[in-house]
Amino acid sequence: MSPPESSATSQTVQVRHAPGKGRALTTTTTLRPGTTILATTTPLLLLPSVANLSSICTHCLRSGSSPPRACTRCHSAYYCGPTCQRAHWRAVHSVECKPLSRLRAAGRGPLPTLVRLLVQALLKESIAQELADLEGNVEAIRSEAGGTRWADIEVMALGACACAGVGTGEEQVRRACELMCKIQTNAFNWSEDNPDQTAVFVEPTLAMINHSCVPSAEVQVAGRNIVLRASMAIQAGEEIEITYIDYTLPRPKRNEALAPYNFQCQCPRCRGNLNIYQASALYPHLDLNCFSLAPEVSQVHQHPAVVDTQKAAAANTQAGKVLADIESSATPDTESSQHASLCHRYQRCKNFAESDFWAMAPLPHLVADASSYYAAEENWSFALTTACLMATACDSYRYPPPFHSVRVQDLFRIAKLLSNTAADTSSLSQPPSSVVSKSDLNTRVQDTLKDIDQVSLCQMLLMMALRLIPEEFVKEWDLAVDAQDMLKDIGQLPGRDKALTLINAWATNPEADQSRKFFQYAVVDPVHTLASLGKEALEHEFRGA
Ligand SMILES: [Zn+2]
Ligand SMILES: [Zn+2]
Ligand SMILES: [Zn+2]
């Protein structure tokens, strides 16, 4: 076995100077969409977020069947077993355990994730050295008007210096501030608004990649496996770009999200103020699209939001306003207020829905929340129709590569819901009482489901998802592990010989004419039928009085 590398390296990438952008990562060979450009399991820094600290293993980040056990000294690291505990001790815990124990003895709660990463950097010189090389926007942050960001950084730096026991003199705090700027600027998955992020990591090679709102690559993460994948064809010598933010949002929102990085985005989408459909049209026809729920996504060029530029520009502007309006209203906490909030949002987005702008913010967020709402009510068939709507009308345009992690999650979600609806259909149980009043639509949904071979659809979606994820994820990603269990269960169902023959032929040679026809019939058509029922479900449920 070769020794673990301290950072992701590959023959295919090169750090170069890019005019106006500082450093940039470029490829030395032409890359096909979906190619793994870089893969690592040993980023420079990696920690679960505080919210997940006690529920997942601090080293492998897996949740496992039983809860991970705390380090008996500091109670600030949790392990699935002795192998991970030893690996983490060698990697970094040996330097932080004692200072973290002291904090605990003093009755203090867990350190914020970024502060703890800084403690590690202050105590382990090799980490600080690798960080020193990265962009930190130190001067820009220090001289910012108002100075609140710098003040925050000083507080965190002071806390980390005190915890690490390196002294809190001017010199030490200044150095800690600089390191903190570099950690903040280059941390992946770190978001102040999203405490649900599983883990935060810093990886120097990936930190060299610049941002674009039309990214040519995506960083995918499962446990400790971090993979950089090409989202489109990238020619030799071309720059590789990822997104730092939720790039599906309208420009004002993107600018807001990019503000901490101290640059003005000059990507084609920002320059042309393109809407999400126009941005989607910038992705040339992708390989593997025939293997997706939306094979016609390459025809995005004919979408009204691309063709009717006037209408599209107006919608783009309106999206920003509606988004701001919705964000300013309070977040609901009870089920009935959640329903009321969805009604309010649907009414605000109604003309987007009527114009078929399902991929345009804030409509996708509404569809996702509506699907979760139905799932929480155990109304599986309506949750399914809205999940199909999300996968086809929203996400296939927002995330053009069919192997994008969001697209794959959509497949898993539909498959999971199908396992519920299939059970309901076969047991001929009554639909939940809450939908009886919408009897006509509900009857049509149930009739549609009865006509679909839900088990085969579920099986094919799971097979697709497992093929679309990086090899490294098959054993490491909770969703993928679940998918394999589900496939095993499906494989044991009796009386499916005919379906299995067709599915096996499709899986062996998906490009064949016969396979494509079968795929269209067994997967694409039913999912689109369900998606259009999903549109009706939203209209029915949330249009209000
Ligand atoms: Zn572990
Ligand atoms: Zn410890
Ligand atoms: Zn941009």
From TrEMBL:
Q: What segment(s) does the record annotate as region Disordered?
A: 1-29
Q: What are the record keywords, sorted?
A: Metal-binding, Zinc, Zinc-finger
Pfam families for the chain? SET, zf-MYND
Compositional bias of kind Polar residues: 1-14
Keyword Zinc-finger (UniProt)? yes
Residues annotated as domain SET? 11-245
The record's GO CC annotations read: nucleus
The organism's superkingdom is given as Eukaryota
The cross-references to CDD domains, in alphabetical order and at most eight, read: SET_SMYD (cd20071)
Residues covered by the MYND-type domain: 57-97
Gene Ontology molecular functions = zinc ion binding
Record PANTHER family: EG:BACR7C10.4 PROTEIN, HISTONE-LYSINE N-METHYLTRANSFERASE SMYD
- Under which name does UniProt file this protein? SET domain and MYND-type zinc finger protein-like protein
Q: Which organism is it from?
A: Hapsidospora chrysogenum (strain ATCC 11550 / CBS 779.69 / DSM 880 / IAM 14645 / JCM 23072 / IMI 49137) (Acremonium chrysogenum)
